[in-house]
Amino acid sequence: xxxxxxxxxxxxxxxxxxxxxxxxxxxxxxxxxxxxxxxxxxxxxxxxxxxxxxxxxxxxxxxxxxxxxxxxxxxxxxxxxxxxxxxxxxxxxxxxxxxxxxxxxxxxxxxxxxxxxxxxxxxxxxxxxxxxxxxxxxxxxxxxxxxxxxxxxxxxxxxxxxxxxxxxxxxxxxxxxxxxxxxxxxxxxxxxxxxxxxxxxxxxxxxxxxxxxxxxxxxxxxxxxxxxxxxxxxxxxxxxxxxxxxxxxxxxxxxxxxxxxxxxxxxxxxxxxxxxxxxxxxxxxxxxxxxxxxxxxxxxxxxxxxxxxxxxxxxxxxxxxxxxxxxxxxxxxxxxxxxxxxxxxxxxxxxxxxxxxxxxxxxxxxxxxxxxxxxxxxxxxxxxxxxxxxxxxxxxxxxxxxxxxxxxxxxxxxxxxxxxxxxxxxxxxxxxxxxxxxxxxxxxxxxxxxxxxxxxxxxxxxxxxxxxxxxxxxxxxxxxxxxxxxxxxxxxxxxxxxxxxxxxxxxxxxxxxxxxxxxxxxxxxxxxxxxxxxxxxxxxxxxxxxxxxxxxxxxxxxxxxxxxxxxxxxxxxxxxxxxxxxxxxxxxxxxxxxxxxxxxxxxxxxxxxxxxxxxxxxxxxxxxxxxxxxxxxxxxxxxxxxxxxxxxxxxxxxxxxxxxx
Length: 661
Fold this sequence. Notes:
InterPro entries: DUF4034 (IPR025115), Sel1-like (IPR006597), TPR-like_helical_dom_sf (IPR011990). The protein is 68% helix and 0% strand.
């Protein structure tokens, strides 16, 4: 279907929804449905329109509320199959949204409950849709998806078992609980009360359809296939529930693909399924080199690539395969050859993020000069497409110095960097900026320090804190590579770390404090250093607490020295998990030895040195002080005298007890 026709059809559907011309929309969808259902239209717009993401992601202002619009449609047209199917799909999407959580965190009970309450509404809508059409493929397919992701509601299981389902409040005594209130709050946020009463029987089309012991996803797959044979979308969803993400594996998917269940699909369609399964395997944990699994995957890949595949599928396979091949064959050139093949698929073919970083690392950091044409193609296409901020900036750096097969075009570079920065701002993703740091390091390893410097300074000019921070080390010649003397500049380094710190970058705050304390590029500034230590501490930088205390002992007033010795350092010692605990004990011991912030006492100092050696037996500094304090008769006499002054108490005992706990 031409792109313009597709866009026009989507606009038409959104317009009919927004103006609530539901009868007109229903008639149009039913006419489109015939060709799709009978599989006579290869590129039917129907499959595209039958998705909430298509219908409700336009530029309408204010944006359409899917639940409100579809509920209105279902009320005005109670016999509309499409209204109920789409309503069920939106309820299902809301269930996923409620169940979403941050990485590393578990889904809370109230989220599970809120999601399940949404699923109840979704299933009710799908069951109504099943009553309204003889071939309800989408309703069956999405019942399969819902069952695979959330399981069937208890009341639907009861109906299939020939029982009358109990109302919610009779089945579960949860209405008065905190979890119930929190779960229901998710529905209240959508403007609905939970459903509590259920149908008393199944739609006629579902009577006696479930086999004994049959899993729900298998049942709904069978139902969908019975009304639309060899439905690719349904089978793709079914196979997804047998992928590694859902506790299955690519081997499990392959067994299904080669089973009678897929017999009605064409070889081309089965190859598409095989490609999806292989992508699942290649994107997971890489099999050990020379293992049977690695050999099997390479053979499967070679067999599949020899078949007829659509370009997007071939690109997706090659994108994932290149890094794996390089590892399995222990040869960067083998991986680069895969990406050469990827570029040959089409003039628009581009590898993904991990492949991009591999190409840079293989060619620049690992010095694989034979792979330079692959890097050249990558950067050339990055410029022609200009939609990937990382690659646009990388290409600009290459053009600035005429590197990596690109001509020297410095006059283009500023505009390209502006464009790359604009793309980053639009995406709201910090990862491209971090990736560019890695690429700058790759350039430096390849001795292209001018290009690396250009890339970092341009990003810093646009306000990238991480590049300002990198430039601090670059200008101080403490970067990962030796930096030519013409770049060494303490004043520039100080400006860069201040900029990064002011942007809110916590490690830069700490480094900035250290630089101010040192007097980098000027005179030491104790007050500013102490302020940055405090800001870093407030932002959660643990080491800043120790360095603030040591700075006060070195440069602070008498009152600040006392505060550091009597409060700040002991606070660190009270924290058994603090990373600078041993250093704090040593510094406090030296304060007692020199009388800084406290009254000089060699016995107490020696106790702290012994405490340091308990925590870190490798501390040569503490061992040397301890040996000097105990190394002669006069020294031991001094310890005895100071012990009497302290009444023989061990000031480290309280900290030792916390270490034991």
